[in-house]
Amino acid sequence: MSNIYIEKAEEAILHTYNRYPIVFDHGEGVHLYDVDGKEYLDFAAGIAVQSLGYHHREYTQALKDQIDKLTHISNLYYTVPMMEAAEKVVKASGMKKVFFTNSGTEAIEGALKAAKKYAYERDGKADHEIIAMHHSFHGRSIGALSVTGNEKYQIPFRPLLPGIRFAQYNHLESVKEQITEKTCAIIMETVQGEGGVYPATEQFLKGVKALCEENDILLILDEIQCGMGRTGYMFAWQEYGVEPDIMTCAKAIGCGVPVGAFVLGNKAAEASLKAGDHGTTYGGNPFVCAAVSKVFDLYEKEHILENVRTVGAYLEEKLNDLVEQYDFLKERRGKGMIQGLEVTGRSVGEIVNHALEQGLILITAGSNVLRFVPPLVITKADVDEMTEKLKASF
Ligand SMILES: *Cc1c(COP(=O)(O)O)cnc(C)c1O
Hints:
Elements: H1 2-12, E1 24-28, E2 31-34, E3 39-42, H2 45-48, H3 57-69, H4 80-93, E4 97-101, H5 104-123, E5 129-133, H6 142-146, H7 151-154, E6 164-167, H8 172-178, E7 183-189, E8 191-192, E9 198-199, H9 202-215, E10 218-222, H10 237-240, E11 246-249, E12 260-264, H11 266-270, H12 286-301, H13 304-325, E13 329-335, E14 338-343, H14 348-357, E15 360-361, E16 363-365, E17 369-372, H15 380-393
Parallel strand pairs: 3-15, 5-6, 5-7, 7-10, 10-11
Antiparallel strand pairs: 1-2, 2-3, 4-12, 8-9, 11-12, 13-14, 14-17, 16-17
Helix pairs in contact: 3-12, 4-12, 13-15, 14-15
The structure holds pyridoxal-5'-phosphate.
Pyridoxal-5'-phosphate binds next to helix 5.
């Protein structure tokens, strides 16, 4: 059956992805089922999105209820879900103001605009620079691509944004070297995801924050992948005690509906984007905000952070065991439920394909890393099952 669907899809869908040859039908908890009825244990969560697992009853009921009331009305008016979702983001982050977007890349665009506007308000100039990191990933729209430190993605689309300088992640000196009097922002992921799962060292993150404060530069932390509880903290920066001036969210903030956000701290909230400076038709509509609002409630009700800390530690232990056992596994990196295994001398793509045959969904990061970003509701038994399936795929 699935071959027919795949052929038809390839006839009509622009081929920008080399998709795995699976046609999914539905999900339940941490399992997915394809159109032929085969079951998969999911350790990818739709790329770090489905934190609550699939077909969560209370979550889907909240969406159904909202669909029956109102899905969209534009940002010319207020809605109660928008108010509730914003309140919960502000409370969880301790930051000041939020702007809802439709995706991660749009959250990055908004963050870059807010930083530029902040600097413009300060000195009236319009030539500001932004420092970004090598091996970063911030999205595919032109602004986000401009700060994504990966030439492979950038080259065909040049010229990109001017005034972007790149530094080495976890290398404070290299950041210092790129600062000029024009620098308005430093943007980085708190844990690099797509680039190969590299958490920021405490020394680096604190050092960057200090540089930002000394030079009146805004720190933008991209929490699109590592945020929303994935590291065991609602936002990864909370573990470091380093609050950004601007934070970006997406992926798990809606647990399956397209929504993102950029969130401003005191400084940026007071003196950056004003009425007329930024907008979106769909962004933050009552449908997606009902999802965001319910996601925050369910994180609390189901003790998601506690689960990430205990089961995440167990996952870490199991992955460390694998590194001990298999020579081609070089190291484990990550925090909580964003983990990577670096592979040498074997293709990660092939391992992922073997895993799929075993009924295990994994994804890769960088060119040689197996990435584990499961739903945050997994149990130790799920970790054990994953480990067995992974060994079989080795
Ligand atoms: C996925 C991701 C993005 C882009 O989000 P989209 O919703 O795909 O546009 C940006 N930054 C990070 C860290 C991501 O993981």
